[in-house]
Amino acid sequence: MSDALKYCAESLRKAGVDKFQCTLTEKQMYEMNLEGTEFSLIRTTTDNTLNITVIKDNRKGDIALNRVDHESIDEAIRTVIEMSSTSQQDPDYDISPKQEPQQFVTGPQEPDTDRMYELLKGYSQQVPVIFPQIKLSESILAFNQSVRHFINSNGVDFVTTKGMYSMQSVFSSKDGEKTSSFNYTGFSLKELERDLLDCGSLKNLLQQSVEHLDAKPMQGKFVGDVIITPDCLSDIIYFYVASYLGDRALITGTSLLKDKMDQEVANSKLTLSAKPVSTEIADGYFVTGDGFAAEDVTFIDKGVLKSFLLSHYGSKKTKLERAKNSGGCWVIEPGDKSFEEMVKGVERGVLVARYSGGNPSASGDFSGVAKNSYYIENGKIMYPVSETMISGNLLELFKNIKEISSERIDFGFSILPYVQAGGVTISGK
Amino acid sequence: MIITNLRQYAPLLSQYTELRSQENRVLSIAYLKGNLVQNVKNTTAGISARVYRNGCWGFASTPNMGDVKSVIEAASNNAMFLDARENKGLAPFAPDSPTIEKSFGTSKPRLTQSQIMEFIKQIDAYIAEKYPNLSSRSVRLNCLDMEKTLITSDGASLYSLLPRSNFGVSLSLDKGDGPVEVYESAGGLGQFEDNFTSPEDLYETIDKLYEHLVKKSEGVYADAGVKECVMDAALAGILAHEAIGHTTEADLVLGGSVAGDYLGQECASPLVTLVDLAHTYDGKDLPMPIYIDDEGTTAEDQVIIDKGVLKGFMHNKQSARHFGVKPTGNARAYEYFDEPLIRMRNTAILPGESKLDDMIASIEDGYYLIRPSNGQADTTSEFMFGVVLGYEIKNGKLSKAIKDTTIAGVAFDVLKSVTMVSNEMKWSNGGMCGKKQGIPVGMGGPAVKCKINIGGR
Questions:
Q1: Is B437 exposed, middle or buried (0-12, 13-18, 19+ CB in 10 A)?
Q2: Nearest residue to A63 (alpha-carbon basis) of A13, A8, A26
Q3: Looking at the complex, does the CB of residue A28 fall below 8 Å from at least one CB of chain B?
Q4: CA quadruple B40, B440, B71, A124: dihedral positive or negative?
Q5: Mean pLDDT, consecutive 10-residue segments, chain B of 457 residues?
Q6: What digits encode the pLDDT tens for the residues B406-440?
Q7: pLDDT tens digits, residue range A244-300?
Q8: Which of A138, B19, B130, B296 is the most exposed place for a label (fewest CB within 10 A)?
């Protein structure tokens, strides 16, 4: 255990708090940046974060700092005890119970900087050749390494040592006065084996960006199908979880699924899991934010709700079962139809590649622009659309799922297919 | 604690270098339905260096304030790594060496954690007691202090303390057909003591918010289509920031944004003048006053649209050189470990001469749109904003409230349809603008009357 964490725990014990938890995260980052197709910056950072939570007389305070000398820790402990002493009492504040100490190690621990340069250089050279109309805006290849040590006063002691590469690229297309919408994607990698263009959905999205130089508004308004791309599906899952499964929705009671455990809430073709410890997921995690060893969890199994995404606090507050992980690392089981077959099954609808919209209402009503998207009619992708809005309700959307594609995109942090659903209002100009 | 005397390290800066010491202090307290769900303090402090070498940047940072020499060396090595491979051979930037010390910290005695907590509890208790029929409520306080020192090898020098403190209150009603929610915020530039004197000061805001909630719970869906609307300041501000502002950040112009084609052209109604203001307007401090940016450039107002004509972009040193103009002081970094990016400061349409009441009275069938939720925009200036508070306008008068809806369109087209601009300016700085890093910005403006595509159910 590091000196800082040991000192912090000893000081908290001496201070007489009832319960505490401390996490020390030591981070290093190595980042290469392209502006357009030119290398602009190399950025290296080191940082620490020491998070301290104390509970005394059912009162709680949290503090985070990035200086870990004894003087700074002493000051932080004084402050966080004052914060807890002035907070309101809540018997549901708690820390995780004793678990077997564990150490987790994943990914490389040092960046291969020459390989990073080689791959990003390759990307900057390949894109103008393959997609001359593409304007790269910002592309970042980064390596993050961290050692995260979690302890609490119940004897929990988890150490996670993790290294991971990640890539993000933002781009649009320009041809004369024609400009396409911007788009972006990203993925995580344990190893730098393949060309960046061959990872995630990058090449596909660059191709779509070029096609969107000729985007046009769709005419009219109708209720039809959407096919949601894997990139866009990440956002939809985030909204769904926040609207129906998370702490806030369940504590406030606004979740329309609060009484639906073990009931069918979505089409039976949908199985949605969060798999942070699965070998399927490169960029997972091993410990939840509140100090439990994470497990893979299926939230919706063949359409049936099997778990909420409740933290330890949310669980105690709502008297519902705690989720065995913190969400993320989403995996949707593949279906049996190819994307191509799925398109053939759409009478009228839109392939939605990016959702640009406000957060859904508390009941899950959503309304936003279908960006980088395509109009589909009689089983064919007809043309790229602009200024086209989609609206519906997330609960209904999941119930109205018709097909899930056999193809999936592995983003490193999630593995997602295309999902076709009906009953969405689609409106053009 | 930041390093106050960075000048002692000036002899270590052998190439063009920015050396910055910064501390961000955050306090977040949130009550959700009477439960204290957040009571957090977060302090992040450290030192960073950014070195420029023949067209390539190297950046490094560390939380250890004693490691100034090694952080400069690391930044220099990063620049050398790229320079050795890229051979751009670009010259240094034209030197600029402004100096300023500017603190917006309070001169009042600081309140204790206990006093602040009591303040929030009182607000939550007021809502709980006065409005027991609410299905949910939340009260949130966010305070942020950004304190930094900066020197550059050109001789620029900055000390600044930029604080902001904001309350957010949301109220929900559920009459059996799903929850309806409204939200309001209060606060802005300044520490808690300067923005909030007594909980009672916020009661009127809460009462008005509840009135809106009741009307919204009886509200109707907006009739979808292109309508004449009055967008109040918050919506005009988000339009100016998201849909126009971002397209005129020079790095996004170079990335292909549509604004690159419009320079010198009429792109909006002659009633529209849109400016990214540096620090003051009409003799008053703006929500996010920037006097010297994080590249050590003097921050100046940048006129983006002047009476309908696109006049300029926002720049850092590098983009300004590319376009052959002066840098505008828009290079800003959020944390000590962040590099400066081209960011907005206080972006707004400037006020006109119309009165809000007259603007509403001039519309036969349309909407008065008051509060956005979140918004997104594109490099094409196509945008979408959620609208969580608004009213129908029928025969020149406000009518029924509308349920949550969305407005969307092409911002430059919307600005061409502007026919009235109100004479009243309102500002806010509660939000964070996202672009690789989040950063606090000021937004605001007058109300504008325009044609806009509003989503229905």
A1: middle
A2: A8
A3: no
A4: positive
A5: 90 95 97 93 97 97 95 98 95 93 97 94 97 96 98 97 96 87 94 97 97 96 92 93 94 91 95 97 95 97 98 97 96 98 97 97 97 85 90 97 89 96 90 89 95 80
A6: 898 899 999 999 999 999 999 987 778 888 999 99
A7: 999 999 998 989 999 999 999 999 999 999 999 999 999 999 999 999 999 999 999
A8: B130
Interface of A with B in 157-176 (CB under 8 A): 170-174
Tokens of A140: 């970042």
Asked if B35 lies within 8 A of A181 by C-beta distance, the reply is: no
B404 vs A contacts (CB less than 8 Å): 358, 361, 365, 367
Residues 266-325 of A with CB under 8 A from B: 313, 317
Both tokens assigned to B106:
């309070």
The stretches of B131-254 forming alpha helices (DSSP H) are 192-195, 203-217, 233-238, 250-254
Quote the strand ranges of B262-404, DSSP E. Answer: 274-277, 280-281, 284-285, 302-306, 309-310, 331-332, 341-342, 346-349, 365-377, 382-394, 397-401
The answer to whether B289 and B104 have CB atoms below 8 angstroms apart is yes
Which chain B residue has the Cα nearest residue A356? B376
The H or E element containing residue B57 is strand B56-62
The verdict on ipTM greater than 0.90 is yes
Q: Please judge whether B172 and A254 are an interchain contact, meaning their C-beta atoms are less than 8 angstroms apart.
A: yes
Q: Are B256 and A172 an interchain contact pair (Cβ–Cβ within 8 Å)?
A: yes
Kindly tell me the sign of the dihedral angle through the C-alpha atoms of B103, B106, B108, B113.
negative
Residue A429: Cβ-neighbour burial (10 angstroms; 0-12, 13-18, 19+): middle
Kindly identify which residue of chain B lies nearest to residue A85, measuring between CA atoms: B114
Across the interface, whether the CB atoms of B63 and A386 are under 8 A apart is answered: no
A241-271 CB burial, b ≥16 within 10 A, e <16: bbbbbbbbbbbbebbbbbeeeeeebbbebbb
Chain A CA closest to residue B61: A45
CB atoms within 10 A of CB B54: 17
Question: Residues in chain B, how many?
Answer: 457
Flag if B85 and A36 touch (Cβ within 8 Å).
Answer: no
Answer whether A256 sits within 8 Å of B252, measured CB to CB.
Answer: no
State the smallest CA–CA distance between residue A79 and chain B in angstroms.
Answer: 9
Chain A interface mutation, best of B376, B385, B410, highest count of A Cβ atoms under 10 Å:
B376
Amino acid at B237: G
Positive or negative torsion for Cα A186, A188, A192, A198: negative
Residue B103: Cβ within 10 Å count = 12
- Residues of chain A neighbouring B178 (CB-CB closer than 8 A): 256, 361-363, 365
Q: Whole-prediction pTM value?
A: 0.94
CA A342 to chain centre: 26
Query: Buried b / exposed e across B354-392, counting CB within 10 Å, b at 16+?
Result: bebeebbebbeebbbbbbbbebbbbbbbbbbbbbbbbbb
